[in-house]
Write a structure and sequence with these properties.
Strand order of the largest sheet: 1-7-6-2-5-4-3
Number of helices: 4
Strand content: 15-25%
Largest sheet: 7 strands, mixed
Helix content: 10-25%
Distance between the termini: 8 Å
Shape: globular
Radius of gyration: 15 Å
């Protein structure tokens, strides 16, 4: 992964990822910064690498079960194999409403005790907390086999104000 392309505040960084393995490794590194109650919103085109990043997060958090896209089940809970928080992986693509639909999922965990990763969550889950990490994954679109992804991570709210996301590029 390349270093950030320009100086940013500690709560924002930009990275270039050149392979699915590097995207998974970014998830492993990011997991070290996460704690129970964190909301991570992933944005990007189909095939951008959102689930690959989440797979790395799951490995880094030490959770049970294979992390796969929850498109048809909408949400999966991956309990911790140790003393860390469970991972709640949500695909909000098919959710039309906002927080009410999220609550209707009747997840069997307390959201404040979990790390919540939501794909396609814009306009749907921001009400869960003012503190969240927004991850945008940009890739070339169209008929291309280009594996390069430009990832922008922005920490919002008090939780992320003092977190140096630049450590992810190390």
């Amino acid at each position: 992964m390349e270093a950030p392309t320009a100086p940013h505040s500690p709560a924002e960084t930009e990275l270039t990822v050149t392979s699915p393995e590097q995207m998974r490794e970014l998830g492993l590194k990011l997991a070290k910064l996460l704690r129970a109650g964190d909301l991570v919103m992933l944005s990007g085109e189909l095939g951008a690498g959102k689930t690959t990043l989440t797979r790395g997060l799951g490995e880094g958090l030490g959770v049970r079960g294979a992390v796969t896209s929850p498109t048809f089940v909408i949400a999966r809970v991956h309990p911790s194999l140790g003393d860390g928080p469970p991972l709640v992986h949500v695909d909000a693509y098919r959710l039309g409403g906002g927080l009410d639909e999220m609550e209707d999922l009747d997840l069997d965990v307390s959201l404040s005790d979990s790390v919540i990763v939501v794909e396609w969550g814009e306009g749907k889950v921001e009400e869960l907390t003012d503190d969240r990490l927004q991850v945008w994954i940009h890739r070339a679109v169209g008929d291309t086999t280009d594996e390069v992804r430009h990832v922008t991570l922005t920490g919002l709210g008090e939780r992320w104000a003092s977190v140096d996301l630049g450590v992810l590029s190390a």
